[in-house]
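example protein:
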Amino acid sequence: MRKFVDNNRRSLKGLARRNPKLRRAYHRLRGRLHQARLTTGTAHRTDGVIPENIVWIFGSGRSGSTWLKSMMAEMEHHRVWEEPMVGRLFGDFHARAQEGNLLSSDFIMGDPIRRGWIQSIRTFVLDGIRLSHPRLTPNEYLIVKEPNGSTGAPLLMEALPESRMILLVRDPRDAVASSLDGAKGESWLHEWRGGDQPNRQNLADERPDRFVRRRADSYRRHMMKAREAYEAHRGRKTLVRYEDLRADTPGTMTRIYSELGIFVQEKDLAQAVERHSWERLPESEKGAGKFYRKGTPGGWRDDLTPEQARIVEEITGPLLRKFYPEDPAPRA
């Protein structure tokens, strides 16, 4: 069974994405197999966690992180840690703390004891990697896909300053439009979040403008923290716009690896780009309501109403003007 799951992981993940019940069964099976490996010692732990070989992908949801991660996973000596949500664990808790708590040494993440709990975050993350990837070796890179944990990006990069960082940016209007499409009834995100519950309220269908406002605010929170981490980080890092990745995938991927200081074979990179190109996706897996929807920058002009576009621009204006000066939000 273990060998079957390992050899057919990509096909099983594809099936799981389309069916909530299969997804739960798949993750339950993988979890039990992994637990068995750790319990019996068959995981062959190497304790090969090298902090400088950790590459974080921060940004926001629906920004192309799955695509980027998939191409990087094809490289030799690369492994992937798929959305551990460790950034959310620490980032959201810290962000919600009251000022009085932050000033207190009694508070578990108080400023007076910051040095200690930053070290604890470092230990927590490295121990998590050892448990999740016990066969990771010192010569391997670990790509951490963590867009939805970007609220904790500043804390994670402070705790692991040797690690490398990718700041992945997408036009917030396209990111929100993609989320809106995916969350509607019968769409992939609605199903993923429990679409098998027929009486569950669906905000994307019933109050789409409110949904857009929430998603835009979520984008702003994640991207502001990811940007903060990027600007403070003194180690290897690179900023990537989704639009540039779509326009020139080979050239952008080459630049990513150059700026991260990681050597990869040019032919391996070219093969990964081709294997994960939009054109190679089966038609049945892309389109409206699918996980792979359009892949076309600027599609928000057709997907959002003028009012919805205004809402997104109002909330994310500073980020639009920073990363998209050629098509910024109007100033208030």
Notes: The beta strands are 54-58, 78-82, 141-145, 164-169, 237-241.
